[in-house]
Amino acid sequence: MPVAPPILKLDDIFLSFGGTPLLAGANLQVESGDRICLVGRNGSGKSTLMKMAAGMVEPQSGEIFRHPAVTIRYLEQAPDFAGFSTVQSYAEAGLGPGDDPYRVTYLLEHLGLTGEEDPKTLSGGESRRAALARVMAPEPDILLLDEPTNHLDLPTIEWLEEELRKTKSALVLISHDRRFLEKVSTATVWLDRGTSRRLDKSFAHFETWRDEVLEAEEVEQHKLGKAIEREEHWLRYGVTARRKRNMRRLGELQSMRVTYRGHKGPQGTVQASASEARESGKLVIEAENITKAYDRPIVAPFSIRVHRGDRIGLIGPNGAGKTTLLKMLTGQLLPDSGMVKLGTNLEIATLDQKREDLDPEDTLSHYLTDGRGETLLVNGEQRHVAGYMKDFLFQPEQIRTPIRNLSGGERARLMLARIMARPSNLLILDEPTNDLDIETLDLLQEIVAGYNGTVILVSHDRDFLDRTVTSTIAPANPEAPDGRWIEYAGGYTDMLAQRKGAQEERRRAEKAERPKTEAVPAAEAPKAKGKLSYKQKFALENLPKEIAKAEAEIAAREKKMADPDLFSKDPSAFNRLAAEMEKLRESLVKMEEEWLELEMLREELEG
After folding, report:
1. Which of 142, 168, 286, 430 has CA atoms 20 to 30 A from the CA of 384?
2. Does residue 172 contact residue 143 with C-beta atoms inside 8 Å?
């Protein structure tokens, strides 16, 4: 079977700003139907490579091929709204001849915008959502999306996942959101130390593959070191060496030494832990029947007791009132009614997602030390700022670098470095995962999990919540928040399971309370003897078999759709399977509900 030619290819790309090259032989190949996630450390060149693909940056050497008939759209981090009076007009400007203008309205609505907004008044998150609508509306051949989920709430992220799974566009994605990448990607390109490696599997397989690559690299480096030792021994003590120098062998040894010394291991990992203050009281926060309303209820009567060591996640759609609830729980905002009592000896450290306290003209050193010289106190130990910066992967020469020169990921790392240096026993983390790379996320996860104090974090990162929190606070009605909040045990996935269980319990209770005439149609009412009709009895006995058959058919289709190459090879088959699964699931739900009603009726008649 002939292989389809690439519609975009970057080959042997080199780019350097002086010193160590940013890209040194990197490659990226995109074919129709590809769903590629581009991963790597902050500063590894992911965004730069993506901008090269979009034609916004030129390499110093290497080849770039773009099919002349292919359309490409790139998600801008800082959209240019000049000349546009509304978001609608900005988004529609991305359409090409023959594109459907209704797509813009549809996308803006699902991204939480009306289209009538004045671009000058947009927040950073709203600007990002407007840019997302503009690039997705024309359904280009290739979509280049750099951190598309930043500033999106969970319902919108889940909607975006479905949109991207359905799109005909080839995708190249950069994101810190593990769960998002796992659900959308079918291939992974790892940018590391200037070069790239490709795995034709989704991000779910990346970390295992990466670790295997690095372990193999360590083995090869160890073998090379031993080979050098053997050659040096020969050089010093070999019989041939005492008579005359073997120049070829000596040259090979020199070459091995250069290779061995020039080898650069994987980019460093962040080494840090939170500076902990003296222990707080056992009861950290007690809230009793607190409320807050503006034009609508934001927090209906809500009560909670937060104990030392709790790690609480706060989630919900944008506008639900997460920040308001958080401010009331930490004493920054008084409730309209109810009581909040803070525990003793509290020392609070806060990471603000808006990065508002970052002065772009400030230097890294001045920001970390608050302008108090060259040292800072970390866990009771005086540390030189350059050494402490190195723990967070900043180079010593960056000590005088203005913050304006940092990437989004580096700014997030800098704020993390500052908050970790300050003694605390209550950490407040507001969207802490934004712009962090996977390895720094792993570190933050370990910090949160091992922190002896108490943590309250607001996040839309489902994977991070599952790995860190002990309980989750979420709106009782996420589709239409009405001020009611519920605390669930465990992380995001645990919360979904508990919600589903509660819904099923309510459904069963409602059915049990219905009059018998309502539960059983008059035409099929049981006979006077108090037994099921023949038709009902037959259905009760055979429905489990039909349910099992439907479940098997769903599983078979899920297995076929799990093939990462199916969509690119046969998109019509993929869409057909998806439609069939949807019908099967609907049928399965109806059969389960019918069986449940009949089983409850049988128990009533026999009881």
Report:
1. 430
2. yes
CATH code linked to domain 283-498 = 3.40.50.300
Give the pair of three-digit tokens for residue 189.
């390109």
Which residues, in sequence order, are CB contacts of 16 under 8 Å at separation 6+? 22, 23, 24, 60
Extract the tokens encoding 334. 């008084």
468 in Cβ contact with 451 (< 8 Å): no
Look up residue 257 and give its amino acid.
Answer: R
Please give the pLDDT value at position 590. Answer: 80
Angle, helices 571-606 vs 534-561, to 10°: value is 150
Q: Which residues contact 419 (CB under 8 A, 6 or more apart)?
A: 274, 349, 350, 351, 427
User: What pLDDT does 302 receive?
Assistant: 94
Number of H helices, E strands in the chain: 20, 20
CB 468 within 8 A of CB 445: yes
| pLDDT value of position 257 | 59
Sign of CA dihedral 40, 42, 45, 46: positive
Nearest-angstrom CA–CA distance, 33 and 186:
10
**pTM of model > 0.70:** no
Query: 401: alpha, beta or left, given left = phi > 0 and alpha = psi -120 to 50?
Result: beta
Asked whether the beta carbons of 429 and 457 are under 8 A apart, the reply is yes
pLDDT score, position 607:
59
Question: pLDDT under 50 in the chain at which residues?
Answer: 239-245, 517-529
Which strands, in side-by-side order, build the sheet including 426-430?
348-351, 426-430, 454-458, 311-314, 471-475, 485-489
Domain 514-606: give its CATH code.
1.10.287.380
Give the model's pLDDT for residue 529: 44
- The alpha-helical segments, DSSP class H, found in 42-172 are 46-54, 87-92, 102-110, 124-136, 154-166
Give residue 381's pLDDT.
83
Q: Which helix (H) or strand (E) holds 297?
A: strand 297-307
273-311 in b/e burial notation, b at 16+ Cβ within 10 A?
A: ebbbbeebeeebbbbeebbbeeeebbbbebebebebebb
CA distance 214 to 194: 15
Which amino acid, residue 104? Answer: V
Closest residue by Cα to residue 446 from 214, 266, 272, 211 = 272
> Could you say which architecture CATH assigns to the domain 8-208?
3-Layer(aba) Sandwich (3.40)
Spell out the alpha helix ranges (H) of 348-461.
364-369, 385-391, 408-421, 438-450
Return the pLDDT at 5. Answer: 82
List of residues 6+ apart from 583 with CB closer than 8 A: none
DSSP class of 6:
P
Query: In 3D, which of 377, 437, 378, 382 has the Cα closest to residue 413?
Result: 437
In tens, the pLDDT along 320-364 reads 889 899 999 999 999 999 999 998 888 888 887 665 567 888 899
Q: Which amino acid is at 453?
A: G
Helix, strand, or coil here: 330?
coil
How far apart, in whole angstroms, are the C-alpha atoms of residue 290 and residue 307?
18
Q: Following CA atoms 112, 117, 123, 126 in sequence, which dihedral angle do they give, to the nearest 10 degrees?
A: 30
Distance CA 420, CA 345 (A): 19
